[in-house]
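Repro:
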Amino acid sequence: MSEANSDYYSVLGVPRDADEKTIKGAYRRIAFEHHPDRNPGNKDAEEKFKCASEAYEVLSDPQKRAVYDRFGRDGLRGTGFRPFTDVEDIFSSFGDIFEQFFGFGRTGRHGGRRGTDIKTEVQISLREAAFGTEREIEVQNLVMCRDCEGTGAKRGTKPSRCDTCGGHGEVGINHGFITISKTCPKCYGSGFVIREKCESCLGAGKISAARRLNIKIPAGVDDGMQLRLAGEGEGGDHGGPTGDLYVLVRVKSAEGLQRDGEDLHCCAKISFVMAALGGKVKIPTIEGETEIDVPRGTQPSDIIKLAGLGIPRLNGYGRGDQRVHFQVEIPKKISTEQEEILKSFAHTMGDSEKLKGKKSLFGRNK
């Protein structure tokens, strides 16, 4: 995006609370107006087309949009987001969308279809989510058939030119004074048809195969986020570009810790004596158990903040905080000696009159 400071919402001309339908409609208008085939040689139109496509790529994805709303464009670097390099990159990724919008992707062009995107899921711990990790995953996808080298035709034969489109992969459709090229319904844009199918792939040109990949999960990733691995999806048809792999990240909860964005919360149970006198208590953190000071006079539900002990931010700048919620525990039963001590303490506080007639303060432990 050449306009580095441009806001994605401003690029599409929509409010920040715009719904999916509004965002899609805005992109459709801009993409049609600045489509490269309607503005040949116009660099300004091409740049606006690219900016709008990048904005739509982010705002149409709930996870990427949530990260962008909180951290801006820099925060997207750890989510697998990859800005479009050129117009062809946009058509490779958004080909199906343009078919829905206008009934065509690029006029005068045909050939291989982009491979299908695939999805998988990986589960990690809260600590791994905080500091990043690597995982080896196995994906099952379609790869080029070696017997026919991706043509889909039986060995020793070749695909024939499509007689509907003459091998162009497109047929012309008149809309008033405008002629729009649409994908050929017989050869589906390839420009040729298969008379004798390959016995290994049955004419598909691809076969199913399993493979292993090492993926890097960035520090600060949250449950439900998706990582996009460009070009790791299924192979394209007839030389078309490969699809992408989307990895859904699931973060397991950690005992004693609750996450809220970049902040962590935990509960520390202390006695009423420690609440009054102060002391030390052990609490869990993502870096392991640690001991903290309990201030004198701590009240039930008091909260203290431990700065910088939260989750690292996706944009790489600092960490969140950890908040400790104190829970003061009152014993249900006490000994006779403890009762006398408490009565003596109550006397010093001027509360002894309020205790008259009470056989026991908490219930005598016989």
